[in-house]
Amino acid sequence: MSNQVPKPLPGVDELNKPFWEAARRHELVLQRCRKCGFYRYPAGLICQECASDDLAWVKVSGRGVIFTWTVFHRAYHPAFADEVPYAVVAVELEEGPRMITNLVDCPLAEIKIGMSVEVVFETVNDQICLPKFRPV
Ligand code: ZN
């Protein structure tokens, strides 16, 4: 990468720390309600379905489909100037939640709603590995 401006990184806090620790191991985890089984993302304090606070972090499949997508042709932050155009997608995970992320290893002209995708991890530094998705 030729530019000098670092990309903004996700904020890791006590609530989402297990998600980012798992990502460093290249595992995708979500909170799951022990009472009703509902998966939630992003991390929260209670279940969105039944309001229970009995949530556990569980490994999920890493598979899903593209719910919707767009291509960024303009760099809205200077750190992304070398990467435009690139795809931003909403992946609907098999477990239910939708994750805003990037699609990689896919020509932009081939992106389709409903396309099956799987998670891959991009190591940014010692703390952050970003979950991204590629076609299956
Ligand atoms: Zn619940």
Outline of this structure?
The protein is mainly beta and 136 residues long. The chain has 1 helix and 8 strands, in the order H-E-E-E-E-E-E-E-E.
Can you give a write-up of this model?
The protein is mainly beta. It has 1 helix and 8 strands. It has one helix spanning 17-24, and strands at residues 29-33, 39-40, 55-59, 63-72, 86-93, 98-103, 116-123, 129-135. Strands 6-5-4-7-8 form a 5-stranded antiparallel sheet. Strand 1 (29-33) and strand 2 form a beta hairpin. The longest helix is centred in the N-terminal third of the chain and has 8 residues, at 17-24. The two termini are 27 Å apart. The mean pLDDT is 95. Bound molecules: zinc ion. Residues 33, 35-36, 38, 47, 49-50, 52 line the site of zinc ion. Zinc ion is lined by residues 33, 35-36, 38, 47, 49-50, 52.
Pick out its properties.
single chain, 136 residues, mainly beta, 5-stranded antiparallel β-sheet, 1 helix, 8 strands, 38% strand
Strand order of the largest sheet: 6-5-4-7-8
| Distance N to C terminus | 27 Å
List of distinct ligands in this structure = zinc ion
Unreliable runs = none
Number of E strands: 8
Radius of gyration: 16 Å
The profile of the biggest β sheet is:
5 strands, antiparallel
Strand content: 35-45%
Produce the secondary structure layout:
Layout: H1 17-24, E1 29-33, E2 39-40, E3 55-59, E4 63-72, E5 86-93, E6 98-103, E7 116-123, E8 129-135
Antiparallel strand pairs: 1-2, 1-3, 4-5, 4-7, 5-6, 7-8
The structure holds zinc ion (ZN).
Zinc ion (ZN) is lined by residues 33, 35-36, 38, 47, 49-50, 52.
